[in-house]
């Protein structure tokens, strides 16, 4: 018998209750306009998010995956050819400890992924590993702000400037996160955001955004999202049907004014977990030095790999939903057999065997946080 989940990873019903008045009004506004594709709601949300993040351009697309793909096409356009496709010998450096989209979009853009290792304490890409992986064929770097925790962008941007490389921030899990006072997605050449419902700024379906301060990139991205059209029925490039629809934009625009407040709630809950579990020697808790403003899309701790699965079962059997992000690194999957590895990825492998999430969303109650902590502690009393 499957145990009842009493405390889920996220609670979309509570979220809707919080936003209900604003979202309902936004949906009615959409219905009245009957402009469902690239209408005024999309433009208004793009402009609002660009202001929030401090970038010149925000281009709405159909998903975070498409935001990455179009960003890669733009990087190819800048460095290779006007059509915006890489060749197989072109390399893009990224991490294997990430969601599938990070790696698959590199291949779909024509390039070869080069997977490098992560920092063992933050799970984000190692700048030193990036430096070691650069060759004459390197064209771009994709740092992934995993779980909402920004990468070491100062070091990464220094490397990129030295080697004249484009940096595409994979900020899918990190909307609202900051690095040295600036929002992620504003630090590299481009940023790619996802609005999947589980994200800190989540829609009612799929959606994504490409951000940039480069006018040429923004124009190219707007063409690509709409079948490569520069003018109506005049395609300048091979593009995609990748438009953020008006309904998603309206919902997201209604949520955006509350993003900072809800991010602070996530941080408060994460700190409560860390304070309550700090004395347990067998677990490692999230590390957040001062330059980093963690958005805590996920609260991820690590245990000895011999205990991880047992703790997972213990939590779930008591109604506390816990998951593993991610059990497999991209380099171990058949889909990425053509990728190149730089180094042994020992920290990546160790993370796959030891990470575990605790429930984290802005609407958790104090009693629920206490129950999660109690359930974790009860496990370690027995081992």
What can you see in these coordinates?
By secondary structure, this protein is an alpha/beta fold. It has two domains: 12-117 and 124-255, 3-Layer(aba) Sandwich (Aspartate Aminotransferase, domain 2); 258-380, Aspartate Aminotransferase, domain 1 (Alpha-Beta Complex). Helices cover 41% and strands 14% of the residues. It contains twelve helices and 15 strands. It has helices spanning 12-33, 40-53, 64-79, 100-108, 127-133, 153-163, 215-225, 246-255, 259-277, 305-317, 346-354, 366-380; strands spanning 57-61, 91-95, 112-116, 138-141, 166-170, 178-179, 182-183, 190-194, 208-212, 229-231, 234-235, 292-293, 299-302, 340-341, 355-358. The strands form four sheets. An eight-stranded mixed sheet has the order 1-9-8-5-4-2-3-14, sandwiched between helices. A three-stranded antiparallel sheet has the order 7-6-12, with no helix packed on it. It has a two-stranded antiparallel sheet with strand order 10-11. A hairpin with a 2-residue loop joins strand 6 and strand 7. Helix 1 packs across helix 8, helix 2 (40-53) runs parallel beside helix 8 and helix 9 packs parallel to helix 12. The chain starts with 11 loop residues before the first helix and ends with a helix.
